[in-house]
Amino acid sequence: GKVISYKSLVIEWCQKEKKIFHFDIFDDNGNDGQKYFGVKLSIDDKVVAKSRATSKKKAEEIASKRAYFAFQEKINKI
Prior knowledge:
Blueprint: H1 6-16, E1 21-27, E2 37-43, E3 46-53, H2 56-70, H3 72-76
Antiparallel strand pairs: 1-2, 2-3
């Protein structure tokens, strides 16, 4: 099946709606010695989703998915 990138869906929606989005990535390492990245996704200066994962790309995608579902009703109206 086709892999949907939630990040691209969110970015597309933000561009259409003239919203400013920003991915804030930081190291968020666990006690297990595993390297993690934390991501905060802000839309119009409001943090709408957070996530952490073992790669930046994964963390961004998880945050985007959470934001997508949070905004889904609005996104689906477009």
